[in-house]
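Obj: model holo form, ligand = 1,3-dihydroxyacetonephosphate.
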Amino acid sequence: MLVPLEQILQRARQNRYAVGAFNIYNLEGVLAVIQSAEALGSPVIIQLLPSALELGGTPLIQLCLEAGDKAQVPVAIHLDHCPSQKMIQAALAAGISSVMADGSGLEYAGNLAFTKNIVQEAVLYSAGVEGELGRLSGSEDGLTVAAAAAKMTQPEEAADFVKQTGICALAVCIGNIHGHYKTEPRLDFKRLAAIAAAVSVPLVLHGTSGLPDEMIVRAIAHGVCKFNVNTEIRTAYTHSLSRLFVGGNLPELVDVMRDGIAAMQGPIQSKIRLFGSTNKA
Ligand code: 13P
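Output (holo structure tokens):
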């Protein structure tokens, strides 16, 4: 069944677990996420990056909505990392129920104004908005942000940002990065604790791929309710494709699709177990 992001995250926050937000690009991704969540009785978040939405358009949104509606577990359909007001408006009009307003490339005042504006727009659709404070480095959706350009979330700003914008979830930057961690991941848990104490909304951690299990468990204890996962699933999917397309072999496409779905289910299910959302549907 389709449920709003806010509902999924508030339940997670009250019961001290987190929910996986998995980036998908196509039918195989949607089926891998929903079948994994159903197998484990877990709520789940399906999210689309702007590049996937640009390619798939409203048919991709409709696919997510229809599959989410028919699912046996709560599913939220979310637009991830969107800096474009126009795209957010189109996604909301097409039925997406929550969006991440990504103003992280702007200075504080610009981010605040952009996010506030999106919240006002989203209210018209009864949709929720995730905002981000600080800036993540690493690579995602064709964009690379250098380590030097990364900005940590300031706890004092976080309180003001949440209050002024009316967002339903806050993505934090505490040393997490998008894509592969090139060195040992180091998260600033002291900062996370200060942010959690300063705001009353569920926290979100991007760049989950490659984080050690104990860091994830610790982040949940500090109020993180949504973990974004992309690279590990994409890696499993592309490896499954490369295994099948060797030696001039022309496999049946349904076999390719089945293999891709099965491959993605591995990391998705292990993350769901780790997040503690098994049997929380
Ligand atoms: P990873 O690709 O590092 O898992 O990050 C995903 C993400 O944060 C999507 O917004």
